[in-house]
């Protein structure tokens, strides 16, 4: 009887009982064909999350080299066979967003050329997610990126807390939009003393649904801020009076349409009572922090004695660490979907929550063909 050879799959087979992880997650069940986990970036800061995920899965990080040529072109060199396997590419987005995108696309295409069976992108923070609406004479860049991933060979994407859930419709393949809220809520319960005396604050009306979800799960009050501090997604001067009214045409004149009044935001105000409370401001992304600093000052004036900022993705660009350190904000809590170790050294107020557990479990379930509904339990359409 011929011997059965496992070859490269031998390293994935566990010889002992699977080790139990937190929340009931277990080591990878390798009853199906093999899989590999790669990092699309070779820098230590960006591979940190990939290492945490592979440790939870009990596998080694795939061997590859990703580097920039002298002319800044991206090059990927795979150091092991991936033929017929499920391959998961973990890509965290550093400050150089465009280089990270090219790394992801080039590695995806390299794996497709190497005959990988399925290529799943694990992109916790999906770049260009704020450019998901047509404004002025611009373009929906997020949809372009989704099309590029599909063309490169991706068959699935795992991400976390998309800026707009409707972004999933841009993709021609499945997308799993995981939630970081269970980990942030756990942090509130375990790390914020007297959190029962807190109130959840939405920095703007557009963030009210997210804040309401936190408030209902924690059985806390809700406050909403409105006014001049939020101008990041203004629709003013969007070019819709094109062609210019000064242009004249021969023949008949255009119809006199009712004039749309320009928007004018009132002075910043808080709807809800924050006096003598801990204010917890929740959002999905914290990048430029001027709006958060202004919100913190207003909440202090209204009587809040402690202010926390909680967000899934901590981009913390430009002078964000310095502004946070000098502001009335007591603590900024973000997850490790984006590397921010440098910012933490500059500002001790920044704290990190690890979400590698849910990403590892998503990889395990997708590879084994298990249902993903367990990861979305108690999550409603509005969450």
TrEMBL record:
InterPro entries: Pribosyltran_N, PRTase-like, PRTase_dom, Rib-P_diPkinase. Residues 239-249 have a biased composition (Polar residues). One of its GO terms (molecular function) is magnesium ion binding. Residues 43-153 form the Ribose-phosphate pyrophosphokinase N-terminal domain. The keyword Nucleotide-binding does not apply. The keyword Ribosomal protein does not apply. GO terms for cellular component: cytoplasm; ribose phosphate diphosphokinase complex. SUPFAM superfamilies: PRTase-like. Residues 229-251 are annotated as: Disordered. Keywords: Nucleotide biosynthesis. Seems to play a negative regulatory role in 5-phosphoribose 1-diphosphate synthesis. Belongs to the ribose-phosphate pyrophosphokinase family. This is Phosphoribosyl pyrophosphate synthase-associated protein 1. It comes from Oryzias melastigma.
């Amino acid at each position: 009887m011929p011997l059965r050879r496992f070859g490269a799959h031998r390293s994935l087979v566990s010889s002992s009982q699977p080790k139990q992880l937190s929340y009931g997650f277990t080591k990878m069940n390798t009853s199906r064909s093999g899989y590999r986990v790669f990092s699309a970036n070779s820098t230590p800061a960006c591979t940190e999350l990939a290492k945490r995920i592979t440790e939870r899965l009990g596998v080694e990080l795939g061997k590859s080299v990703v580097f920039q040529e002298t002319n800044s072109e991206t090059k990927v060199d795979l150091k092991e066979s991936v033929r017929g396997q499920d391959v998961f590419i973990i890509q965290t987005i550093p400050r150089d967003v465009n280089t990270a995108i090219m790394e992801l696309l080039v590695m995806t295409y390299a794996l497709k050329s190497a005959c990988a069976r399925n290529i799943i992108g694990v992109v916790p923070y999906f770049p260009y997610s704020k450019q998901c609406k047509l404004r002025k004479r611009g373009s929906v860049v997020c949809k372009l990126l989704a099309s590029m991933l599909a063309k490169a060979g991706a068959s699935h994407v795992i991400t976390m807390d998309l800026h707009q859930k409707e972004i999933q419709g841009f993709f021609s393949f499945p997308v799993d939009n995981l939630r970081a809220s269970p980990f942030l809520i756990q942090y509130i319960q375990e790390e914020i003393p007297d959190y029962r005396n807190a109130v959840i604050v939405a920095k703007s009306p557009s963030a009210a649904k997210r804040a309401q979800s936190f408030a209902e799960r924690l059985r806390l009050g809700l406050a909403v801020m409105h006014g001049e501090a939020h101008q990041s997604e203004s629709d003013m001067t969007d070019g819709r009076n094109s062609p210019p009214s000064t242009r004249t045409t021969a023949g008949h004149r255009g119809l006199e349409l009712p004039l749309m009044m320009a928007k004018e935001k009132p002075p910043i105000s808080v709807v809800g009572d924050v006096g003598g409370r801990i204010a917890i401001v929740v959002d999905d992304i914290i990048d430029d922090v001027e709006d958060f600093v202004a919100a913190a000052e207003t909440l202090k004036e209204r009587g809040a004695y402690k202010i926390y900022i909680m967000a899934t993705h901590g981009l913390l660009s430009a002078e964000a660490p310095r502004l946070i350190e000098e502001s009335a904000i007591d603590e900024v809590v973000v997850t490790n979907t984006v590397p921010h170790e440098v910012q933490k050294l500059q500002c001790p107020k920044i704290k990190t929550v690890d979400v590698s557990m849910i990403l590892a479990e998503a990889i395990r379930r997708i590879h084994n063909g298990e249902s993903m509904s367990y990861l979305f339990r108690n999550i409603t359409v509005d969450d």
